[in-house]
Structure prediction request, 315 residues.
Amino acid sequence: MTAAMALQAQQSNASCVRLNQGDQDMTVSLTMPNLDRPDTRFRLGTGGGVLDSFECTAGQTAFNIDAPLTGLTYVRDIQHNSYLYKVYSTGPRSPLIGFSFSVQRSGNTVGGPPIAIGTSNRHPGVPLTTSGPIRVDVYMEIFFRGGAMESVPMTDLGTITSSVEGDPSQSMQHHVRLEINVPPVTCTLANASHTLDDVLANELAASGSDAKESSFDVTMNCPMDNIDVQLSLADANDPGSSNGQLAPAPGATAGGVQVQLLRGGQPVQFGQVWSHGWSSKGQQVIPFSARYLRTADPLVPGDVKGEAVLTADYR
Prediction:
């Protein structure tokens, strides 16, 4: 009679203790181009890593990571390499920010799987065959949002805590601060000319009367969505003009009548800034209208001309 005995080897969990008592100061300050590359990673953000964070025995070095960061809003999931990141923003046009956590033998390549904020995460750690030091780090993964982006001023996002699974007293703090400088993107404005229909003197008989109003558009071309455009108008020949009245331009021969510009049916206010809002990608129109306006001066037949300058500012 023979008997067989099966043996099953069990791998014990590692126990880890703090070896280096420093915290990780993860202050990331970078400049990124304002490009329309949605969900493309720009770079891995690192900072203030602590070498030999823990001393661990042989086994599997699992960690729990608590990430109660504030000031961030979940936007969407992004697939990058073999990982699915939850990414966040500090505002409606900021770059997108993901987080990852690394457990490595000291000296090994850094990087690790993503973690989510506002919840507890688990990292399975690395298998150790012998006791030795390991390094744990938090990283930021910076992604292009898609459309125009805006800068993120230096912001304290909070503190992430990582702790040894099974012994939360053995923990480490990761202080997270972020600054991203993004240059603004500009649009182009096309020159526009508009001709009013001829007007008869009796249609402008009284001072303050107007005639022959008609609409026209100025074309603006933007390289991407979400450019925050602010617009303003000025009289090209008289900075002191008001009520949308354009001073006579070179070549004007008429008297007692000027061109008046309107926006939304109301005379434009030169020098007053208004918001076009967020752009769409490609061509879009900025609508205006123009009309003749009789002034108090004597009426003299001739050509009526005026010129205005439209200025776009960006945020």
Observations:
- The chain has a mean pLDDT of 91.
- The first strand starts at residue 16 and ends at 18.
- The chain has no helices and 24 strands.
